[in-house]
Design brief:
By secondary structure, the protein is mostly helical. Helices cover about 40% and strands about 10% of the residues. The chain folds into 3 domains: about 60 residues, no CATH class; about 100 residues, no CATH class; about 40 residues, no CATH class.
């Protein structure tokens, strides 16, 4: 694993373990990477002893980061092309024309050092551009790299289960499509409701009360 620091601040890492680490194993290692580059050797020595060897290779400054090798074999030109394409999709002027993004050597270097697959990069960018979170503004390569872990957490967070009205709201139910009606019915059952038939008059959802007799 190559851990990349810029101006002594942790930026990203290149993971080439074989066989690949599990998500749990990788996160376990990432949790011990400090922001201060000078602390990394002592932290890993205390945690892993002689099982992990830390060898400082190169301290990267602001501009020289562009001299790093292509991280993960994903060409920086392809990363920039995808970034610019999605940026224009999400940024329009008052006439509806796409606004182009202009990048420089420093930002190109940051993308070059980012170890990521093309598929995951697109997922991260889609989440980033669609998010209205205040800390993900403005939309720039520098901010994307700076907030990468937060973006990744958003991308892979478990979706919040949709909530429906309780008690049963027939007007809401009638406005739903077929699949949403089934989801609403499942939601009712999960919250203790049962559908009781009234002969000749259809039926209704009723809260099922459980009584315990001692």
């Amino acid at each position: 694993m190559m851990v990349i620091y810029q101006d002594s601040i942790f930026k990203s890492c290149l993971n080439e373990f074989k066989p690949s680490l599990s998500e749990h194993q990788l996160n376990g290692i990432l949790n011990y990477i400090p922001n201060d580059a000078t602390a990394i050797e002592g932290i890993f020595l205390a945690k892993y002893g002689d099982r992990v060897k830390v060898e400082p290779v190169h301290q990267v400054g602001a501009e020289p980061v562009a001299q790093l090798p292509e991280a993960g074999g994903y060409a920086v030109n392809d990363k920039i092309a995808l970034w610019c394409s999605l940026y224009m999709d999400h940024h329009k002027d008052k006439d509806g024309n796409a606004i182009k993004y202009k990048t420089g050597p420093a930002e190109a270097g940051k993308l070059k050092a980012l170890a990521i697959t093309p598929d995951e990069f697109e997922i991260m960018l889609q989440v980033y551009f669609k998010s209205d979170e205040w800390y993900l503004k403005p939309k720039s390569i520098s901010n994307f790299i700076k907030k990468f872990n937060e973006i990744r957490a958003l991308a892979y967070a478990k979706p919040k289960a949709k909530e429906y009205p309780l008690p049963y709201d027939i007007d809401c139910f009638n406005r739903l499509d077929f699949m949403e009606k089934k989801a609403y019915q499942t939601y009712l059952r999960e919250h203790g409701y049962v559908f009781e038939l009234n002969p000749g008059r259809g039926g209704k959802w009723v809260k099922h009360e459980f009584k315990t007799t001692i």
